[in-house]
Amino acid sequence: MMHKFLSTFLGLLLFAAHAAHAFEPTTKQVTDNVYAIVGEIDQRNPENQGLNNTTGFIITADGVVLVGAGATADSAKMLEAAVKKVTDKPIKQVINIGVQDHHWMGNSYFLAQKIPVVALARTVESQKQQEMGNRMRLSAGIGGKPEDLKVEYASETFPGDEKTLTIGGVEMVLRYLGDGHFPGDAVLWLPKEKLVFTGDIVFNDRMLGVLPDISKVKAWQATFKKMAELKPEHLIPGHGNPSDLATAQKNTGDYLDWLVTEVGKSLEEMEDLGDAVKRLSADKRFDFLQLSKDLHGRNIHQTYLQLEAE
Ligand SMILES: [Zn+2]
Questions:
Q1: Which CATH number fits domain 21-308: 3.60.15.10, 3.30.450.40, 3.40.190.10, 3.60.130.10?
Q2: How far, in Å, from the CA of 8 to the mean position of ligand 1?
Q3: Alpha carbon of 23 to ligand 1 centroid (Å)
Q4: Could you tell me the distance, in angstroms and rounded to a whole number, from the CA of residue 36 to the centre of ligand 1?
Q5: How distant is the alpha carbon of residue 231 from its chain centre?
Q6: What separation in Å is there between the alpha carbon of 150 and the centre of ligand 1?
Q7: What's the gap in Å between 137 CA and the centre of ligand 1?
Q8: How much distance in Å is there from the Cα of 53 to the middle of ligand 1?
Q9: 91 has which bridge partners?
Q10: Would you state the pLDDT for residue 6?
Q11: CA–CA distance, 207 with 276 (Å, rounded to integer)
């Protein structure tokens, strides 16, 4: 009897400890029917379950379209809970626009509920190529073994670079504009609302990361410019808070331009890698972005290696 009481008590204690640490993303209304779900603006950890990115959803006459699936079943549940706080309508459809873990590796949670998940075929191809790296980086952040993550791809894919979907009266265009943070990253453009879900093409509030062998800085710079040509009035980024285009330009576009220009000059002047990283790391103009202390020097290093190899 005492034993049973103790185990119940301990169970409650554990539950309370877990609940106290559980991370909750912030939901922000962007237009009448579109919301951003802003995950943690920091690195992955066990509490945020890899939900250190931004996703969102569109409420239509036929139900909710969720743009992004979270990194794991637990982070998918956080997204589902965020939707339920705003509307009683069920999630009808999930769209994968990104290749990095937290944009799609929670798919299995929605597929198990028979909710279709769609994506451009080229995005899924890249997800397959990047899957092992995504599993490793994710499990390094949240714990557990890479092979234990349950990973499923979209249930329907579309060939080519563009697919228009009209769901519950809302027109949305899934478009590939060029490679970005990851090859195969796409955007979702809502022409009537002039709203774009940019995925990881835009990082707001925090510094973007140039990943070795994955993020090609010049391609990303060109893709950002194409996104800007859409002239969005509302922008939901892959990381950080929703914003206008000018804010995204300041946080991401200007930084990509700076990396390409300054590192390019350094190579023209035959400065060696170590000197270039040391000199350019001392430039503080992007210090207002979170994580800049961790990422700025690494980004310069990676950009140097890429531009040098051209
Ligand atoms: Zn990301």
A1: 3.60.15.10
A2: 39
A3: 17
A4: 15
A5: 21
A6: 19
A7: 12
A8: 6
A9: 64
A10: 56
A11: 19
Residue appearing with tokens 């990509």: 256
pTM (2 decimals)? 0.92
> Ligand 1 centre from 88 Cα, in Å?
28
* CA-to-CA separations, 177 to 97, 117, 250, 297, in angstroms, rounded: 11, 21, 20, 28
Which residues on adjacent β-strands are paired with residue 94?
66, 117
* Residue spans per domain, the chain: 21-308
Instruction: Please determine, for residue 158, whether its predicted confidence score (pLDDT) is greater than 80.
Output: yes
CA of 288 to the centre of ligand 1 (A): 19
- Give the tokens for residue 75: 């982070």
E strand spans, the chain: 26-29, 34-38, 54-60, 63-67, 91-95, 117-120, 156-158, 162-167, 170-175, 187-190, 195-203, 234-239
CA of 98 to the centre of ligand 1 (A): 8
The tens digit of pLDDT for each residue in 78-94 reads 999 999 999 999 999 99
